[in-house]
Design a protein that fits this description.
With 475 residues, the chain is mainly beta. The chain has one domain: Porin. It has 6 helices and 28 strands. The radius of gyration is 23 Å and the shape is globular. The relative contact order is 0.14.
Length: 475
């Protein structure tokens, strides 16, 4: 049963007025960053950078820092400090986040030509000290975290580049959702809401890239994989499993694969640039970074369902394409996954999961419009090729997304992201306003709203609607 939620008047008003703000302010510029549409470069990489979301902008800033590296020294300390405050608006309304996040790092180049980078992140969420809303288990998991971020060595040997260490390996990037980005682990304790460069968890890996003309080959080995962080039962975005009448539910601690080389991941990827088309194909064999919840049915002494998160051995084959057409960029991604299991609703099933092979693909277009406006449209589908009628998803699940971004003034921009299913009422709405009020300072305010059935991709978080603000200083 879907429960209606009472959203405070101020949030309801914001949701009604927000689309109007995207169309309101008089145009001061044309194109991206004040560039006339006719002057926008045809180079696909430039267009993709202009079309990227905030997380891609931050990643570009990090890459730009590499140019400051000097032989025999570092480039200075770089990073950001950010405070995030969120309040859940459903009944009971409560503070859900008072997070201080500091990410810092440095990079350099030795006299022998070897480049290096070291970075880390510290998170402290004061909501667990200021309130008693969450359990001690959730508090221990999310109150304080220290993470080593990208930390690696780079070297070049002729046409080969070699990177060894903790690193991001991004093989695909659509707006708001993941498809061909199969290597990254993710911190899912806030679902898919954080910027992707915050959400992604680097892997310990050795990566070799080969360059020749318009071709790039890539070999990847992840000897000790990193896995998704999904949180603890009772957390805001814990992926709760199906309930059945007459049965209570209990969760056992997650089981992760042993740290053996036989449990490692490996993959290969090739990319080509041909007549303006940026094409890639890849194969990746891994222990699934995302968990599958196995189920045990107990009837004595009481009826109980016991769930435990485990990780399957999977294979993924896929590819991406991108091409610029004037002020528009066409992008597509696809990945076929075998070996992954999904929850089955038959209580007679021994472990509560069945193997389901899936083909996930997405097609999107990113358009630069007049008056500093950007529009992104995406259509996506997930198809199960050996569909079991008792799993939650249908054989074909179709959806779409719309992102509209408008620069209202040189320092103020408004944005709204809408992602929804074609199969049922299951959607997510994310209005947001960013204000760069001083150099290196940014203030953001927004809302995250979910609607759908209890086991829907978004509907399972229908009670987690929230309003939030973020204050960031970059250095």
């Amino acid at each position: 049963m879907i429960h209606r939620k009472r959203i405070p008047g101020i949030l309801a008003t914001c949701l009604l007025l927000f689309p109007l703000t995207l169309l309101a302010a008089p145009p001061e510029k044309v194109g991206v960053g004040g560039t006339a549409a006719s002057d926008i470069p045809d180079d696909i990489e430039a267009l993709l950078r202009e079309a990227a979301a905030d997380d891609a902008k931050n990643a570009a800033a990090t890459r730009a820092g590499a140019s400051d590296m000097k032989p025999g020294g570092g480039s200075g300390l770089r990073g950001y400090a950010q405070f995030e405050l969120a309040r859940a608006v459903d009944n009971p309304s409560h503070w859900s986040k008072m997070l201080t996040r500091v990410e810092f790092g440095t990079q350099g180049k030795s006299s022998g030509g070897i480049k290096w980078k070291v970075s880390a992140r510290i998170d402290y969420d004061a909501v667990f000290d200021a309130t008693s809303f969450y359990s001690n288990e959730v508090r221990r998991d999310q109150r304080f975290n220290f993470n080593l971020r990208e930390t690696y060595f780079d070297t070049s040997l002729g046409n080969w580049d070699l990177r060894i260490g903790r690193q991001h390996v991004v093989w695909g990037e659509m707006v708001g959702l993941f498809f061909a980005d199969v290597v990254s682990a993710r911190d899912m304790r806030e679902f898919i809401l954080p910027e992707f460069n915050i959400l992604r968890i680097p892997q310990w890996a050795a990566r070799a890239e080969y360059f020749k003309g318009d071709f790039k080959g890539e070999l990847l080995w992840v000897p000790v994989p990193t896995y998704d962080e999904t949180g603890k039962p009772g957390a805001e975005f814990f992926p709760a499993q199906p309930e059945f009448p007459g049965y209570s539910i209990r969760y056992r601690n997650e089981t992760r694969p042993s740290r053996q080389l036989s449990q490692g991941n490996y993959g290969l990827r090739g990319t080509w640039l041909a007549d303006g088309w940026d094409l890639s194909g890849f194969y990746y064999r891994s222990m699934d970074a995302a968990p599958t919840f196995y189920r045990q049915v107990v009837t004595v002494p009481t009826a109980e369902l016991i769930y435990q998160a485990r990780h399957d051995r999977i294979s993924q084959t896929g590819g991406t394409l991108a091409k610029a057409f004037g002020t528009a960029v066409l992008k597509a991604e696809a990945v076929y996954t075998t070996g992954r299991r999904q929850t089955v609703l038959r209580l007679s099933d021994v472990d509560g999961v069945v193997p389901q092979n899936t083909l996930d693909w997405a097609l999107g277009v990113d358009v630069t419009l007049p008056a500093d406006t950007r529009l992104n449209l995406q259509y996506f589908q997930s198809m199960i090729t050996n569909h079991d009628r008792d799993v939650i998803p249908q054989k074909r699940e179709n959806g779409y997304s719309l992102l509209l971004n408008r620069k209202l003034t040189p320092r103020l921009e408004a944005e709204v992201l809408w992602v929804a299913s074609f199969e049922r009422t299951d959607w997510m709405l994310r209005p947001k306003i960013n204000w760069d009020f001083e150099k290196n300072w940014r203030l953001a305010v927004g809302a995250d709203v979910f609607k759908g059935p209890p086991m829907g991709f978004f509907g399972r978080y229908a009670a987690q609607d929230r309003i939030y603000t973020e204050l960031r200083y970059s250095y």
